[in-house]
Design goal:
This is Vegetative cell wall protein gp1. The chain contains 9 helices and no strands. With 269 residues, it is mostly helical. The N terminus is likely disordered.
């Protein structure tokens, strides 16, 4: 049974690596090699590309050992660029989720005007305060939880996660995976932009891929933040009960929230 489980897990890991790393890596390597041959002047010359591809194919037929070496090098390069794309994606994610305060108030002013048009009173803690929309979307979960339940959502979430059942966890995991895929897409876009140094169409491809990744990341992060906030709304009483904090009929108030915070932080600040 254990062997079967490990074999199944290995199959999924290999499948994931093949579709998420190897295939995109091979495509990027192919584009880079072909783009370097075409250059900027003949960037869109289909005839020149066909002639070059035929010469490579005939060369492989004449020297099969050379073909094996080329394929091996291509696979190695695909793995390397896949790892590099992952690291670049992590860097992009750090920028998107940076907690640095906003230098300007453009998004804040837009939010205030939107609230005025809707006839809704603005809450200072809910207004944009960070450099990116994504970072502010995560901060908003913390601000709303603090305002409603008086405790720190970031400190409570790992404990709350332990209380969730599989059905509640599944959509959260799916949204987090979708965000990770979008971040990875942004990493690949950065590599395509580098290929654009020798072949300008890759710049266009990279820009389109980055825009797609950015849009998907916003959607996935919005879904993730909504699911996390919903989990807090539905299960905060279970968290208080698990921590031994008695609640009255009105739920978590300032005193209960402060006690939960104190327990989560082990009495620290």
């Amino acid at each position: 049974m254990v062997t079967g489980v490990l074999a199944e897990l290995n199959r999924h890991v290999n499948s994931r690596w093949f579709t998420a790393v190897l295939l995109p890596g091979l495509l990027l390597v192919t584009v880079g090699v072909a783009g370097r041959h075409l250059g900027h002047e003949g960037a869109l010359s289909a005839d020149e590309l066909r002639v070059w591809a035929e010469s490579v194919w005939h060369g492989w037929h004449r020297e099969p050992s050379g073909a094996a070496v080329d394929v091996g090098l291509a696979l190695l390069a695909a793995g390397v660029v896949g790892a590099l794309a992952s690291e670049l994606g992590v860097a992009v994610e750090r920028v998107w989720l940076s907690a640095r305060p906003s230098g300007g108030g453009r998004r804040r002013r837009r939010a205030v005007r939107a609230a005025e048009r809707a006839g809704v009173e603005t809450v200072a803690a809910y207004l944009p305060q960070r450099r990116t929309w994504m970072s502010d979307r995560i901060r908003l979960v913390e601000a709303r939880t603090r305002a409603q339940y008086w405790f720190d959502a970031s400190a409570a979430w790992p404990r709350l996660w332990l209380l969730l059942g599989d059905e509640a966890r599944r959509p959260v995991i799916s949204a987090r995976a979708a965000f990770a895929d979008a971040v990875s897409l942004a990493g690949w876009a950065c590599l395509y932009a580098l290929v654009g140094i020798v072949w300008w169409p890759a710049l266009v491809v990279g820009a389109c891929v980055f825009l797609t990744g950015w849009r998907r990341a916003r959607t996935a992060l919005d879904d993730l933040a909504t699911l996390i906030e919903s989990a807090v709304d539905v299960h905060h009483r279970a968290l208080a009960e698990a921590l031994g904090v008695p609640l009255g009929t009105e739920g978590v108030g300032a005193a209960e929230g402060a006690r939960i915070d104190d327990m989560l932080r082990k009495g620290g600040a």
